[in-house]
UniProtKB/TrEMBL annotation:
Keywords: Membrane, Transmembrane, Transmembrane helix. The chain crosses the membrane at residues 33-51, 63-82, 115-136, 143-160, 180-200, 221-238, 244-260, 267-288, 360-381, 388-405, 411-428. The keyword Signal does not apply. It comes from the Bacteria. This is Uncharacterized protein.
Amino acid sequence: MTVASFAILALVVCIPLLSVADGLPVVGERGAMGALMIAVGLGLAIVAASLRPGETAQLRRALAPVVPLALVPVVWTIVQLVPVPGLAHPIWASAASALGASVYAPVTIDPGATVVALCTWLLALALVLTSAAATIDRGRAEWTLGTLTGATAAMALVVVSHDLSGATFLGELQGRTRAAFDTAAALGVVTALAYADLVFERYETRHRRGAMSTVALIERLSLALVALLVCVFAVGFFRGGIMLISALSGAATFALVVVVRRMGGIVWLGWGLAAAGAVVVVMSLAALGGVRDAPLAIRFAEVAPGRFDAAQRLIADVTATGTGAGTTARVLSSYEEGAVSGLPGAPTTVAALAIELGTAAPWIALLMAAVIAGLLIRGALKRGRDSFYSAAAAGCVVTLAIGAFHDASLLGLGPMVLACLVLGLGLAQRLGQSSR
C-alpha cells in the first residue's frame, strides 16, 4: 500500500467519525472542520508528491470541465461578503437607522458565518482534488472503490444493528448523525453495485490468462452482495420513503450505463430507459406526497413540527439574494417559537441553499448536478473498460440530488467527505487510465 493510499484510507476513516462529531454540540462543526482541514492539507501534499508528470496532465484534463462550475458558489459567496449597492440585506438598513450612522452592509447578515461557509466549500474542492489525484492511478482507484464500499456497508450495518437492538447512540431519527449514516447507506447501494461490476470485469479480463480464478470471483462477488444487501436493508426497511427512492434512482443510473455499454453503446436505448426512469421517480415522489401545502424545498423533510413551521415561514420571506452562506441556523432560530429539539439548522439541503444563496440557488445547484452527472455518464460510455467508476459517481450524484429534498446531511462534514471522495474518483477515471 502506497503513502497516497494511506491518505485516502485516513479520509475514509474520518467519514463515520465526522458524522458522529457533527451531531455533538461539544465538538461543533467548526472544530471538526479545523481538524479536517489539517488532514486534507497533509493528504493533498502527500498525493501531489506521488504524482508522475503524465498523471498530472491527465488529472488536469479530467477536472477542467468542472472547474467553472466549482467556482460559481465561490464567486457568489464572495459577492455576499462585500457591500453591493442595492443588494444589501434589509437588516443593515435597520441597524444603520438604530445606530444613526452608516454601517458595513453586505448581502449576508453574518459575515463570519459566510466566511466559514466559504472555507467549507473550498475544503470540499480540496477533497475532490485529493481524491482525483490519488485515484488517477488505476490500482489506487480500484483500492479506493473497495474501501468506500466497505465503509458505506459498515455504516449501514451500524444503522441496522442500532435499530434492531433499540440503541439510541445515533440520536433521533431526524437528527444529523442518523441522517449522515442513512445517506452513507444510500450511497453504499451504488458503490456496492460498482464493486460487483469491477469484480466481474476483472474476472473477464484475467480469467483466460489464469490471473483470477472462479473461486476468487465468487468470494469477491459474495462480499459485494453482502454489502449491497446490508445497505438496501438499512435504507429500505428502516428509512424508506424518499431515501429509498434516491438510493434506487442512483442504482438505476449506474445500471443504465452498464446496460447501454453491454449492448454496444445504443444511445437511444439509454435515453429511453432514462426517460422511463425519470417518470417512475416523479410518480413515486408524487405518491409519497409529503406535506402538500409546503414549499418543495421542505415538502419531504422529516423534522420537528416547530422547525418545519419556522422553515416554511422563513422560505416564504426569502429574497433573491438570500441571507448569506452559512446563516440558516441563526436566521431560522429567530423564526422558531419556543424550544425545538435537535441542533439548529435547515431541514433540507435544498432549503439551506434557498435561504442562504437565494431563491434560484436550488435550481442552479440541480442543473449543475445534472451537468456533472452527464459528464460522468459520457465518460463512462466512452471508456473501453473501468467505466464503473464514473458510472458509480453519476449514480451517487443522482442519489444525493434527490436526498437533498429529504434532509440536510450533505451539509455535514461526514457525508461531504464521502461525496467528494466518490466524485473525485469518478472524475479521475472518466478519461483513459493510468497504472503503476
